Amino acid sequence: MISLKLPNNGFEHIESYEDFLEKGHSWTWCLVGNISEKHEYGEEHEIMIGTKHFAPGTKVLCAPTQWGDGYENIVVIGSPRHGSPYVEIVTRSKYVENFRMQKVYKPSILKRMCLSKYSWWGDTEEDRKEIIKYLEYRNPEEAAKEKG
Q1: What is the pLDDT along the chain (148 residues), one digit of tens a residue?
Q2: Is residue 137 part of a domain?
Q3: How far apart are CA 105 and CA 113, in angstroms?
Q4: 16 within some domain
Q5: Are the C-beta atoms of 55 and 34 separated by less than 8 Å?
Q6: Is 148 inside any structural domain?
């Protein structure tokens, strides 16, 4: 079930993709980024390429913060390294770069969001403004472009 944020700080609970469409939605705002090329891992500071689940450069869709860790760990949806359709996992935000805002129209991704136990962005102006606040911290140049 997807929980989309509403302008009054409430949530609209969506039971399925069909429910999502029936309630008048056809897209949603989303913070997106790419999996970083290389990063240090472990006590030995090994250089890793991408992450266990995602190849470097993979586009991931990032959910709003779910718990109070300062967005250190984030829920993402992306196409995994090995086969299968989109997966949803929790990853470290330090493995994601090039943050930006996009509208999501793709039914397969929207369906995955509808199956999620986490909250995702909605299609409201408030959601757009909240994503810009995330961008101000993660990618100030992109935030400035979005503000117009």
Answers
A1: 566 665 555 667 788 888 888 888 899 999 999 998 876 677 777 777 777 788 898 999 999 999 888 889 999 999 998 877 899 999 999 899 999 999 999 999 999 998 888 989 988 898 999 999 999 999 999 999 988 7
A2: yes
A3: 12
A4: yes
A5: no
A6: no
